[in-house]
Design brief:
Number of helices: 6
Radius of gyration: 23 Å
Largest sheet: none
Shape: extended
Amino acid sequence: MTEWTKKKYDEAYKSYVPWMEDKYLGYFGENKTSYTAKENLKTDVTGDKNINAIQGGVAEGVGGQLSSKGLLGGVGDLSSKEGVNRAERGDTGPLDPKELEKLNAQKQQEQKGWTETLSGGYLGGSGKK
């Protein structure tokens, strides 16, 4: 029973925690990429408060541009969703060639031509050949 419970907890954690983190950061106009950039670029190496202020400004500037409302917001959002979240879950996603083949096969089966769609519902046809 404990192994099953642990497995289910891990599955739920991997599914919901990245989503909750994204929602929380979204309230502040951030994404994981911008938040990570701001935190990791703030390296107070020199001890000089003027240089530390410059480093902090650069970190805020880069992070701000990668935030959802920044100039590079699309890049930040995409890298957060497709990069950081998948890395946290250990998911290769469609980057795995076998998974990509499966996804392409599913998409081909799901796609219908416009005439098939029309005859399948809008014009009252059954859509079957």
